[in-house]
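2024-03-11 09:14:02 DEBUG pipeline.ingest accepted 1 chain
2024-03-11 09:14:02 DEBUG pipeline.ingest length=266
2024-03-11 09:14:03 DEBUG pipeline.predict start
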Amino acid sequence: MKVGIAGFGTIGREVGRALDRGVETLVLEAVCSHSRDKALAAMEGFAKPVDVVPPDELARRSDVVVECVPKEAFLDIAAPALRAGRTLVTVSAAALLDHPEMVDLAGRHGGRIILATGALLGLDAVRAAAEGTIHSVTMVTRKPPKSLMGVRYLEERGIDVSRLTEPMKLFEGSAREGAKHFPANVNVAASLGLAGIGPYRTRLEIWADPTLDRNTHVIKVDADSARFEMKIENVPTPEKPGTGKITALSVIAALRGLVSTLRVGS
């Protein structure tokens, strides 16, 4: 199965390295990047460097397209891949909320969208509970201030998190609103909404917390089948603190799940 990677930054490079090292029956075919030189430099240690190609060619050459681009470039990658009937693996739940027509496009052309778990946990349990009745889903996200630097929502409101000495609540509302205002930080909230009772009914709080060194999410679900609470503390990547190290690993796990003879989890 040929895999193409769109976006060769923090997540894409890690996925590419894993494929280059070897994942059963999966082969890295090509990558797509806004900077060809940087992408080629990132593949210098690869056993088998691949071509850097535009989105349409990536879709044509790949069976599976892994989307790791900024939200504003999502359609440039998703539309050609799904129009070509490919499987699109992404962690961009916020982009999917903005472009639900991509689901229809996949259906018309025999494509498929796989939203990888990303930096969250327990989506299997939430999806299972959604087969019954979920009464409420809440998520509280706490991040070190450095993980929230450069967020436009905060800059527009004159909120400076760099000098905080105690936790500060930055947002409270629906997961849909949160994904809109913090698209690079709480894709997890959008994923949680899509897995459960929807992004408008899923409640979200976002905090900047100078006492933390990990991106932390606490999820509480109350359903007719179960009541559960989950917590995850993600180690930030050095080059992009807003992205946890586990995000790229979840994409690799999703790829393995496409071809493995034993798949654990629903």
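2024-03-11 09:14:41 DEBUG pipeline.report The radius of gyration is 18 Å.
2024-03-11 09:14:41 DEBUG pipeline.predict end
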